Amino acid sequence: MTEKDVSEKASRRSSSATGTETPMQEKGGAVTDEHNAALEKLDEPELMDDKTTTQETLDDPKPVSVFQLFRFADKVDLLLTLAGTAFSCASGVVTPVMIIVFSELIGVILDYESLMAADDVETANNHLDHESRHYCLLFFILGIVMWVLSFGVNACWAIAAENQGLRIRKMYYKSIMRQDIGWFDTVKTGELTTRITNDVNLVQEGLGEKFGFVFMNVAAFIVAFIIAFVKGWKLTFICLTVVPFIAIAGGYLGMTISKIITSAQDKTAASGAIADEVLSGIRTVMAFNGQAREIVRYDEMIEDSYKFGRKTGFILGASIGFIQFFIFTMYCVGFNFGSWRLREGEYTPDEVLNVIVVLLVGGFMLSGAAPNVSAISTAQGSAARVYSIIDRQSPIDPLNTDSGTKVDKVRGDISFRNIHFSYPSRPDVPILKGFNLDIRPGQKVALVGESGCGKSTTIGLIERFYDPAEGEVVIDGVNIKDYNIGSLRQRIGIVTQEPVLFSTSIMQNIKWGAVDSENNTPTDDEAIEAAKAANAHPFISQLPNGYDTLVGEGGALLSGGQKQRIAIARAIIRNPDVLLLDEATSALDTASERLVQDALDKLSVDRTTISIAHRLSTIRNCDQIYVVRDGIVSENGTHDELVKRDGEYASMVRAQELRQAVRNKIEDDLHELSEDEEGDVDELIAKELKEQALDLKSTTQQTTDSTKHKTSDVGSVESSSAKKEKKHKSLEDSSDMYLMLRLLWQYKGSMKTAIPGVFLSFIDGAAMPCFALVFARALLALSDPDMDEVRRKTNLYANMFLIFSFAGGLAMYGRIGLFKIAGENTTRQLRHDMFVKLMTFESGFFDDEKNGTGALTSRLATDAEDFNKIVGTVISTAFSTLSTIITATAIAFVYEWRIALLMLACWPIQSYAQYWQARATWGSSMRLRTAYEVSGQSAAETIRNIRTVATLRREETFIGIFDKLNEAPHAGNMRSSLYSSVGFGFAMACNMFINALVFYAGCRFIINGWMSIEQLMNSLMATMFASMSIGMLAQVLPMLSKGAIASRGIYETLDRKTAINGIDPTGSKTDSFEGNIGFDNIKFSYPIRPDTKILKGISFEGLAGKSVALVGASGSGKSTSILLAQRLYDVNSGNVSVEGLDVRNWDIMALRNNMALVGQEPVLFNYTIAENI
Asked: If you average pLDDT over residues 176-181, what whole number do you get?
């Protein structure tokens, strides 16, 4: 199926739940009945039954309190937080003080009107001129003070949050690294890595300047009420009757949002876990055409996250709408009561004026705190899971250097005493059932038995990955629990059947095997000697970069045998006291196996060695062989003793000897065949099998398929690289802002709820200037000497305030709620489309270290979330602010065009200040995005391979790497915070500067007779609130920077052209697939290493019904041939054909549907066993 078809299918499933359509529901390419049938099966609910999941379901942690958010602040951070709080409160005081100045100036203007009424023109003009200069100077001074204080607010809170965010990120990763392996068995590792980027980012946002803005807004509200009490306590007290309702709405907002966010982030982390699982096993997904299934599975999680986000939008909009409603209602009550007491002679017009104006601005500032309260509540919800993991005490802590006995050497006397054990993920399934075993120092023993009998479990217990439920493991006479676990693991070396290498050089991978390499780093010569002993030096020397060759994620750029030899070299350089070999030579060819086995035999001299092997020929010389069956030792002895005993071991030996005899007989017969007899090979095999009562074809297939699948998963075709480069140049030629606008246009279909939201934004934005106009008229009405007229007008205007309360509250509710829903819907669609796009990419894309699993998972989590804020917050605020500017300008033009022109001339200056702020945050956002991707990749790799990390005792090493990656942009971010704070401070101060200029100019216009006092008041109030709205816009500009940068990252995925689209149904297929495969003069290099030729003109045929075996040295190209047959890569030259047709002309899904692969390192997914099959 095409990318569109898969997207349509999953989108329809999402849409059916929400009743919405998505922009991806458009006509795609033709989908065959076969592919549709496969998709229909994905709709069966039992395939996704959660009851089959083995992952732990933890109790939902409660959202942390506000004070607990700051628990990881150090003294410097606390000092910055206290300073930021002081700056916030002080800057909050400036606004009410400005209103006092404003009220006094209004009083001066009213005095001017009285003097003019008395025909004292000269005195009136002189008085107005003098007083306007005085108060406008105060406005300017307040602007300077606001600049300094706002700089302090932004700088202190931003730097403190940056420090705490870095510390939380480091502590979270360190806490993960110190957990016991049993805990990792019960959690989804992908969730852990998603929280490093997504959740910690949200916590940092809540700890930052948004906290300062809340303090600033609340302080302004409190000081405004204090001033109002001083000016007129009765009137203020009446207005306070509304405040409890505002507090209830705000409290409900905070408590509810934090709980919902906790659940939403759990779903986001769960989707990240799915993405991590799928991307880390992407070759298996491709080989079995599992892309559609995984897309549906991923969509189910992001759908759940969307539902929580939509609920958040409704609650956030309703809460802020109620706050807006009650604030306007407060003005209605205040004006009614104030005019009544004015008529009774208790208050003067100036007193009522001062109280109402101060409360007006205080209420406006309080309403501005609500969105920031939401951000803090989001941080509380996100911190719940992050902090709970940081606080978790591991029962087996490898980083605890103080507990237990430390050892520099162990003799290797190991005893298992009545061990009973079940894995934490399956506590009801016993693995060891009274297991007993004694191993003497220096003894070489082997454990054999059927798969799942408990052999490898014993190795996990020796490493103390787990503690037994009953019994004890004793080393050198000491219970293993009494050792310092890190010290003990340093004395143990291990080579497993599926060795893990880390995404660094071959040299570094070998060196990481050494003991205490941080304090005693092994030399390059020592690493090379270890490689020689492991028979790895020859192939390493042939690589263009030799020992400096990067091995890729999980060692994907090397073959299975090459990886295993490096892992053996890693064990050799450790020179361990206890050597554990779990199928250590299973991936090696016969010649290499003999050489490496000799090296292992030499390494095991005079040290305790425990081998687990299915190939019994490798353990003949062991001192003791233990047969494990059903969780206990059923028999033991030397090889000869057990064979003589004629028990289970003897039966296993005879079975393997029989297989080997068949192989030897066939090899001898093949040498005797003439060319015309070669077609009868299968008949010969069948004959031999019949004679020996053994199905050789199955054995041959097993041998063939045991070649490593993951090994050759490298690179893409050269043409793909060229296309990618071309596309990147196109992206580089586009600005981030252009890409953001392009993305908004492309996903306009996901923003349908924003259409009425735009309308409501304009109503919400226009409400404040219109309210200011009515408010100005109401203020003038208070000075009317006719008390009856005062009552009539104030009642009229109070009723208009009530209308504003309903209209403003509803508009605010709709604006915030609808845009939030649009943002969540867009985020859901973006994640879906990005994931679908990733499913179309060729295998080579994932070999690039820039496209590691952790980096891609981080992009899915953070880029879409950052763009969410553009749709959900920035656009909404921008439309509202634009409406405010347009309405205020129109009012000003209606009443006094000179004031309007002056206002228009000033706003670009204020806008430039915000641009200055945005530019500063741009660089910081870019640095952080890069750092988080790289560190996320490192974290994902180590968490996914935590057993290897623990075995090598490399927790501190990787913690150090992670810390350095996150610390790299820290200094630059500190500077950016200072630069952006300068711009933010100036943007906030511009409000004062503009008011000073407009006031002074208005007074001069009045003196010159160009305008009336009523004209000045009407235009002035509109201007003042417009400037304040523009200042509020400065608080969301950092979101704009992050969202624009995220747009580039999104298009790096969406715009990339894939070389081999694994879900594209175009191409040929046949109804009768017989299995004829041909390789004709194939030449191939992985693009990631184009100078290393893997296949150099290979040609062979695999005829229908025939068995073909590919043998040769590790890294010779055997597994590569399999991947080319499945078209996971395209050849450089030559032709791979299936049924006589070039694989490049096949319907790729039909091609892969007719193939099955059993790789050396099989990948199973988080489904039931039945579903995996």
From this structure: 93
Domain co-membership, 961 together with 1003? yes
Q: What mean pLDDT is reported for the chain?
A: 79
Q: Give me the sign of the Cα torsion angle 425, 431, 436, 437.
A: negative
Residue 54, token pair as written in the block: 């083995």
Residue 195, phi-psi category: left (phi > 0), alpha (psi -120 to 50), beta (remainder) = alpha
Q: For residue 682, what are its two tokens?
A: 């299968």
Judge contact between 425 and 305, C-beta under 8 A.
no
Which residues fall within 8 angstroms of residue 587, CB to CB, at 6 or more apart? 497, 559, 560, 561, 563, 564, 706, 708, 1114, 1160
* Pair (244, 363) in one structural domain: yes
Same domain, 47 and 112: no
In the block, residue with structure tokens 């849409």:
15
Token pair of 1170, please? 């039945």
Determine what percent of the chain is predicted with pLDDT higher than 70: 85
Who wins on pLDDT, 836 or 1014? 836
Is there a domain that residue 467 lies in? no
The verdict on residue 30 lying in a domain is: yes
pLDDT average, residue stretch 1145-1160: 81
Residues 22 and 87 in one domain: no
Asked if the model's pLDDT at residue 710 lies above 60, the reply is no
1136 forms beta bridges with 1079
User: Does 795 lie in the same domain as 695?
Assistant: no
* 629 SS3 class: strand
CB–CB of 414/465 below 8 Å? no
- Among 992, 1023, 1054, the domain boundary falls at 1054
Provide mean pLDDT across the span 254-266. 75
Cα–Cα dist 826/844, whole Å? 29
For Cα atoms 426, 431, 436, give the angle at the middle one, nearest 5 degrees: 150
Within this chain, do residues 673 and 802 fall inside the same structural domain, yes or no? no
Q: Is 1095 helix (H, G, I), strand (E, B) or coil?
A: strand
pLDDT in tens, 678-692: 344 344 433 443 444
Rounded CA-CA distance 647/634 in Å is 10
Q: Which domain holds residue 22?
A: 3-52
> What is the pLDDT confidence band of residue 711, given thresholds at 50, 70 and 90?
very low
Residue 611 domain-assigned (yes or no): no
Radius of gyration of the chain (CA): 37
1018-1027 core/surface letters (b: 16 or more CB in 10 A; e: else):
bbbbbbbbbb
Collapsing DSSP states into helix, strand and coil, what is residue 557? coil
Domain count of the fold of the chain:
3
DSSP letters of 989-1031?
A: HHHHHHHHHHHHHHHHHHHTTSS-HHHHHHHHHHHHHHHHHHH
- Statement: residue 455 has pLDDT above 60: yes
Q: At a CB cut-off of 8 Å and minimum separation 6, what does 336 contact?
A: 794, 795, 798
Quote the CA–CA distance of 1064 and 902 in Å, as a whole number: 61
Is 9 a member of any domain? yes
pLDDT in tens, 343-363: 777 777 777 777 877 887 777
Q: How confident is the model at residue 35 (pLDDT cuts 50, 70, 90)?
A: very low
Judged against a pLDDT cut of 50, whether residue 848 lies above it is answered with yes
Report the half-sphere exposure of 175 (CA within 13 A, side-chain side). 18
Q: What is the mean pLDDT of residues 174-194?
A: 88
Looking at residue 672, its pLDDT comes to 56
What is the CATH classification number for the domain harbouring 136?
1.20.1560.10
Domain end marker among 1034, 1054, 1074: 1054
Q: pLDDT, tens digit, for every residue of 504-519?
A: 999 999 999 888 655 6
986, 1018: one domain: yes
Helices 33-42 + 3-18 axis angle, to 10: 40
380-437: pLDDT as tens digits: 888 888 999 999 999 999 998 888 888 888 999 999 999 999 998 888 889 999 999 9
